[in-house]
Specification:
alpha+beta, Lambda Exonuclease, Chain A, 6-stranded mixed sheet, about 20% strand, binds iron/sulfur cluster
C-alpha cells in the first residue's frame, strides 16, 4: 500500500518522479503550484514537433504531410532547421517498422496510447480520480500472440547507458496491467537523430509483477519523500534547461553569478 504522502501527489508518472528526485522546487512550481512555465526550451518545442510528425506518420498519414504538420509547430528558422535535420531519421525508422510488420503477426498498433493504474495496479481511466500512476506510450505493437513492444521516441542525444530505465520500467508496469494477455514486453528507445532503436531485453510479465511493480512503488515513495519538506532548490547543470529558471531564485543566481576576474582561466 502506498503512504498518504505518496497518495497526496498522485497521479504519478515517470517524469513526475524524476522531477521530484531532481529538484523539489521545480516539482512545486510544476505540480503543486501549477505555475505556467515562463519559457519553453527550444529542445522541448523541437521534440514536440518531431513527436507530432512521427505520430502522424505512424497513424497512417502520408510522410510528407506528417512532417509538414510537425514543422508547422515551429516558427523560429533555427528550430525549423534542427527539425529538418532530425526528421531525416523518420523515414529509416518507418522502413524498419514496415519490415517488422511484414515479419510478424501484428494484431494491434497503438500510437500515443495512454494508460493509468490505481494504487493496486488495476487499470483505470487516465484522468480518473483514482489514477495513481500513468503514462503514455509513444507507440506500441501487440504481436505474435502475447508480445508487446513499446517504443519511446527521443530527440535528444543518444544515451549510451539507457539512463532512462526508470521510465521504461514504468511503461512495462503499465503494459502488464493494461494488457492481461501479454506474456512479455519489449521496451525500446528510438533515437530519432541516429535513426536507431536500443532495446532492453524482453521482460516476462511475471518478472514485471515481482520486481518492477515494487520498484516503481519504491520510486514513487522516494519521490514523495524528496518533496515532503517543501520547495528546495537543487542547482545543477539541469538548471540551464529548466523552464522556471527565470523565476527561481537559485536559477537567477546560477545564471547571473558575477564572474571573478581573478579566477584561473578567466582573462
Ligand atoms: S532553476 Fe534549477 S534549482 Fe531552480 S527550479 Fe529549476 S532546476 Fe530547480
Amino acid at each position: 500500500m502506498a503512504t498518504t504522502r505518496a497518495r497526496s501527489h498522485a497521479p504519478w508518472s515517470a517524469s513526475k518522479i524524476s522531477t521530484a528526485l531532481r529538484c523539489s522546487r521545480l516539482f512545486h512550481y510544476r505540480y503543486v503550484e501549477k505555475l505556467p512555465e515562463p519559457e519553453v526550451m527550444p529542445e522541448a518545442r523541437i521534440g514536440k514537433a518531431v513527436h507530432a510528425a512521427l505520430e502522424g506518420a505512424l497513424g497512417g498519414a502520408a510522410l510528407p504531410a506528417a512532417i509538414e504538420q510537425g514543422r508547422k509547430l515551429l516558427t523560429d528558422p533555427l528550430e525549423q532547421a534542427r527539425f529538418d535535420h532530425l526528421s531525416r531519421g523518420i523515414p529509416p525508422f518507418l522502413d524498419r517498422i514496415e519490415a517488422f510488420r511484414r515479419r510478424r503477426r501484428v494484431a494491434r498498433e497503438l500510437v500515443e496510447f495512454s494508460l493509468a493504474v490505481r494504487e493496486d495496479f488495476s487499470t483505470t481511466q487516465f484522468y480518473a480520480g483514482d489514477a495513481f500512476y500513468r503514462g503514455i506510450f509513444d507507440s506500441a505493437f501487440l504481436y505474435d500472440e502475447g508480445t508487446l513492444a513499446v517504443i519511446d521516441h527521443k530527440t535528444g542525444y543518444r544515451s549510451p547507458n539507457l539512463s532512462i530505465t526508470d521510465q521504461l520500467e514504468g511503461y512495462a508496469v503499465l503494459a502488464a496491467a493494461g494488457f492481461r494477455s501479454v506474456r512479455r514486453v519489449w521496451l525500446g528507445i528510438h533515437w530519432v537523430a541516429d535513426a536507431e532503436v536500443d532495446w532492453v531485453r524482453p521482460i516476462p510479465t511475471q518478472e514485471i509483477q515481482q520486481d518492477l511493480v515494487p520498484r516503481v512503488l519504491a520510486n514513487i515513495e522516494a519521490a514523495a519523500l524528496a518533496i515532503s519538506d517543501g520547495p528546495r532548490s537543487n542547482p545543477g547543470v539541469w538548471c540551464e534547461r529548466c523552464n522556471y529558471r527565470t523565476v527561481c531564485p537559485t536559477g537567477i543566481e546560477f545564471r547571473f553569478e558575477p564572474v571573478d576576474p581573478d579566477e584561473p582561466g578567466i582573462e
